[in-house]
Specification:
By secondary structure, the chain is α/β, with parallel strands linked by helices. The chain has 10 helices and 7 strands. It has a single domain, classed as Arginase, Chain A, CATH 3.40.800. The protein binds zinc ion.
Amino acid sequence: MILFHKSLGPHFSKFGIDIPIDEKRADKVFEKIKHPFKVEALNLQEFEKLSEADLRLVHDETMVSEILSDQSDELFRSFEKAYEIKKENFDFKKAQGLRDQLLLHGAVSGHCIEIALTKENCFFLGGGMHHAMEGEPRGFCLFNDIAIGIKKFGSHKKILIVDLDAHKGDGSAQIFQHEKNVKTLSLHMKEGWPLDNPDDEAGVGWRIPSDLDIEFRKGEEGSYLERLEEGLGLALSWESFDLVVVVWGADTFEHDNLESAKLINLSREDLKKRDEIVLSKIKKLRSASFMGGGYGSLSHEIFSRTVVRMLKEGLL
Ligand SMILES: [Zn+2]
């Protein structure tokens, strides 16, 4: 199943947040697949925004009350952490609008995990807010939608998160570090954000290891596919997993234009082989897929190819 609705965005610019993301990337993927594969957009009337109780499954009390606050100063604190926005550029009304859109977006992420656990594989053309930690929004991620979905619908299930985004899935690693049933595998840049964050005074947080981190220094792309195959094979041998959650970040693409993702540069051909390896390894398991990062005008090509391949192979 494919989950998509154009109003889920997230439409950051409309709400005064400046991020170099192509806000139409999900729309473009959907346009490409809707006719040949007869997929339909969601009816959002059937969804309710994530509630305080949902957010509290993962995040601490202060973080949740700031996100949900109807006080400008409090909501600003969560936006400052997630989007590094300055006070003079903060528009409370617009921020409330984005917050509410994201809470609905997060509910659809949870639905994707629920469907994948109970019915069939699912790909949400959105989601993947993997940097938000238990007590802190970070890296364009106001809260961790995947972690919330897993806690809400997947308790007692054995779940593997495979994070292919250029940036470490540090929030997911932190949130699930003591969780026996949820394992994390992340392939990412060894240097740069978030691992070299100078604000990391306590030496914790983003450096908390995933169950398996596979890290690449600049110029090491040549070993990406081999290490992916080996690492994913190893991770899948840990347990008999009920679900694999994949963050298909496209910011590893050489033409991605996010400055902080420039330390890893995979070609179209590399990414095609990446998909081949991942899908051949997980095809016998249930999967829930999310977009994660992917910036600039070409990221939709990478996502489209993955989705089309999954549809053609009968994996969605
Ligand atoms: Zn990223």
